[in-house]
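Schema walk-through. Below, the input block comes first and the output block second. Nothing else is stored per chain. Lengths vary across the set, and this one has 129 residues.
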Amino acid sequence: MSSRRFVVPTLVATVLLLASCSPAEFARAQTAEDRPDSVVDGSAGKVDVATLRYVGMADEYDVYFARGSDDGATLCLSLVLDAVWQSTDCERDYVSVRISDSASVQAEINHRGGEVRDMISDNVWISRK
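--- output ---
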């Protein structure tokens, strides 16, 4: 038997698995709007700048989503207020950043359908208490 029979299906399965675990926000090309200097400078090397994407507004904050610079499974959320960087938080697979006493911005690799969420992009939402 040829070892190629086993290698090719394994490679195809691996590629499909990796593609299914990648947030949709990273599928589009990065634009200048996705990479503000305030976030690049303020995040102090926490984020992989090539994956940085603007995803929308959460209350008065502009929200940016990225992968962590040290690990492809780490997700990061950065908040900007009036063009000034406020914070960047990173966690593996799921990240949450408080924006007020009663709300936070959250992101995870795989959004689970059926949950009621105030979505601001495919994998980022606002959670309110």
